[in-house]
Amino acid sequence: MKRKKTLLILISPVFFFSCMTVPKNIVYFQDLDKNEKYLQIENTSATYEQVVKKHDELLITVSAPVLDQIKVAQFNLPLTSYLTPGEETMIQQTPSVQTYVVDHEGAINYPVIGRIPLAGLTKSQATEKLKSLVSDYIDDPVITLKIMSFQVTVLGEVQKPGTIKVNQEKFTILDAIGAANDLTIYGERNNVLLIRENDDGNKIFVRFDLTQSDLFSSPYYYLQQNDKIVVEPSKTRQIDSKYGIADNYKLSIFSMVFSALSIIASTTVAIISIKKN
Q1: Average pLDDT, the chain
Q2: Greater confidence, 195 or 4?
Q3: Which residue range forms the structural domain that includes residue 155?
Q4: Alpha carbon 205 to chain centroid, angstroms
Q5: Residue 37: inside a domain
Q6: Are residues 141 and 111 in the same domain?
Q7: pLDDT computed for residue 241 by the predictor
Q8: Which residues on adjacent β-strands are paired with residue 51?
Q9: 167 within a domain of the structure (yes/no)
Q10: Which residues contact 256 (CB under 8 A, 6 or more apart)?
């Protein structure tokens, strides 16, 4: 019985301090069954499509059969080339495309046709609307529309915070976190904040738990233009920030010394107990 008590005294400090060093839980989608080789989660946002918003920059191109190229040209903005003055010659730079800006009323000024309201329409709806209007002048026009101003911003406890230029049709919160090189070890994975501003100026705040799979069925899983993602720091990170590097170093030294003294004291008590027996 005494030997058991002695053994308990010896291992108790090790057990105590090992518990203190267990890392925080940083696993994504913890509720998924790891033993299942195939899982299917219904995505309620599978039909998601980009929506045209106020202040968007739109690249709109019109094409048609060769015989209608003269008519088509009037609906396409010309490429702009900037000339840089040199000592003897003018150097022509690479041409850049011009875009249409959706104004504060949600419309664009389009050649020949005039003002066209587009804000609030999906890309396919806006494309069909343009095609219908241009069809009054050209037979079977092909309309291509691209939102050039699509970007999202990721801030907080990520490896690479900043603004991300989006060139793909669908961009999810996981894509944004991946573009930011993932969260740091201090990022709160169960409390990621999404900030979205609507055309009416109202802001929507949504919190995500990246440790749960219901993220995939969220209506906010796919991001929109100018969405902001904020990853909050853990309590450990907040304490580190509060005390500073020097104070943290002192606390670390104190903790190490305290741990060593505790182990020495426990070992000494154990040795004395053994000798008495």
Answers
A1: 81
A2: 195
A3: 151-233
A4: 14
A5: no
A6: yes
A7: 63
A8: 122
A9: yes
A10: none
Q: What is the CATH number of the domain that holds 61?
A: 3.30.1950.10
Does a structural domain hold residue 30? no
d(CA 247, CA 253): 10
pLDDT of residue 20: 47
Contact indicator for 115, 104 with CB cutoff of 8 Å: no
Predicted local confidence at residue 145, as pLDDT: 95
Residue reference for tokens 């529309």: 145
* 19 CB burial (10 A radius; 0-12, 13-18, 19+): exposed
- Which of 93, 119, 147 is the C-terminal boundary of a domain? 147
Give pLDDT, residue 89. 47
Does residue 40 sit in helix, strand or coil?
coil
- Rg of the Cα trace of the chain? 31
pLDDT for 253: 73
Q: What is the mean pLDDT of residues 182-203?
A: 92
Whether the CB-CB separation of 74 and 246 falls below 8 Å is answered with no
Query: Are 32 and 214 spatial neighbours (Cβ–Cβ below 8 Å)?
Result: no
pLDDT at 227 over 80: yes
Amino acid at 71: K
- Give the Cα separation of 155 and 180 in Å (integer): 9
